[in-house]
Amino acid sequence: MKYYGGCDSGSTYTKCVILDETGKMAANVTLRSRINSVLSAQDSLNQAIAQVPDLTSPEELSYLVGTGYGRNKVPFADENISEISCHAMGVHTADPSVKAIIDIGGQDVKGIAVDTDGTVLNFAMNDKCAAGTGRFFEAMARAFEMDLTQFSKLSLSAKNVIPITAQCTVFAESEVISLVGEGKPMDEIAAGIELSVAKRCFVMSKKAGAVDKITLTGGCAKNDGLKEAIEKVLKLKVIDLPIDPQLMGALGAAEFARQKGGN
């Protein structure tokens, strides 16, 4: 049996997926990224390899593709492919019916339109500001003194929305801290945060060519409050993928590896 790997070296998390020659997922790993991208990639690869009895080293993979923020630092990679292409291929592999993606990463937000073969038709990217990214949500969760899982569900109970006017992550965090200090309902503040991010996704959804449905990838796709806000603002159905949305970049990289290494 041959095996193919994809390593998504992100700014916040490093993910690794191994597929067998039939396309079945044999291993997957998600780790918090270290300062050193090489060490992060090594850790994720080694842990993924440990899940496959037939393998003892990343060098035994028939083909390995690196992607993400640190894609040039993935050890033993045969090729590097952009995260935009890999997210498109990952979503296509997970659910071929989905043609529009909003990828919310640690440091940027992307809108991606997917062609019938999993390649990219069009994309838009916001990498000028951290507002609306994973880093932004981490800052907001800190302001609420809770973890991301708790924060992602907080807005679901809100009866009203308290708007967040600041666009910058730093100023938004200060605004949220002030509102919490004033005793404003925390779920309504959270609803305002989710709404502000959903509005930022509007242009991305248009670039992705979304008509009636869209899917989210990246760690922020697990934010239930954000999914609800996006459905309200964009008037689109958010499709849940059958595979962890945070793995889409690594899955797409592994599928590219399978296609290229299998020839």
Primary descriptors:
263 residues, alpha/beta, Nucleotidyltransferase, domain 5, five-stranded mixed sheet, 8 helices, 39% helix, globular
Descriptive report:
This protein is an alpha/beta fold. It has two domains: 3-88 and 246-261, ATPase, nucleotide binding domain (Nucleotidyltransferase, domain 5), CATH 3.30.420; 98-240, ATPase, nucleotide binding domain (Nucleotidyltransferase, domain 5). The protein is built from eight helices and ten strands. The protein has a five-stranded mixed sheet. The protein has a five-stranded mixed sheet with strand order 8-7-6-9-10, sandwiched between helices. A hairpin with a 3-residue loop joins strand 1 (3-9) and strand 2 (13-20). Helix 2 (83-94) packs across helix 8 and helix 3 runs parallel beside helix 5. The two termini are 15 Å apart.
Q: Could you write a compact summary of the structure shown?
A:
The protein is an alpha/beta fold.
Q: Radius of gyration, Cα only, in angstroms?
A: 19 Å
* Average pLDDT reading: 91
- CATH domain topology of the largest domain: Nucleotidyltransferase, domain 5
End-to-end gap = 15 Å
* Name of the top-level CATH class of the largest domain: Alpha Beta
Known CATH architecture of the largest domain: 2-Layer Sandwich
The spatial strand order of the largest sheet comes to 3-2-1-4-5
The class by helix and strand makeup works out as alpha/beta
**Overall 3D shape:** globular
The oligomeric state is single chain
Q: Any idea what the CATH superfamily of the largest domain is called?
A: ATPase, nucleotide binding domain
Fraction of residues in β-strands: 15-25%
Topology as H/E string?
EEEHEEHEEEHHHHEHEH
Largest sheet: 5 strands, mixed
| Uncertain ranges | none
Instruction: State the helix count.
Output: 8
